[in-house]
Specification:
Layout (H helix, E strand, L loop, with lengths): L5 E4 L16 E5 L4 E4 L14 H23 L3 E7 L2 E6 L5 E8 L1 E6 L6 H14 L9 E4 L2
Helix pairs in contact: 1-2
Length: about 150
Amino acid sequence: MSEYRATTLWTRTSSDFTYDSYNRGHEVRTGGGQIIPWSSAPEYKGERERVNPEEALVAALSTCHMLTFLAIAARKQFTVDHYRDEAVGIMTKNDHGKFWVSQVTLRPEIVFGGTRQPSLQELAGMHHSAHENCFIANSVKTSVVIEG
């Protein structure tokens, strides 16, 4: 089993504490010691230049899929030279009127090197296996769609 840690640190910087005035900026310290500036999304009075939880969820699903895909490709002896994914998350309201990230669409574009190139069927199989084995995708109820 593995364990992962993060410490979230926030301090009020406004003179008062109302919904319109309190600061959304904060830091997250990872178990590895990185300090990452976070905020709420801009539409919720956050700072655009900081990471927000919704984008982090999309990024976590995208990078988990990529890392799992790379492991599968390497084991199948396909050489990956470049991987790019323009992932998009969609927030909607659920049946109880609560907002949630209901779908994340991954659009991986992969460049393979060498003479051994996967067929379209092999590529689709690797994406399917990557999705089935992605730790993050297995941890959320968000629908993850893979295009491409």
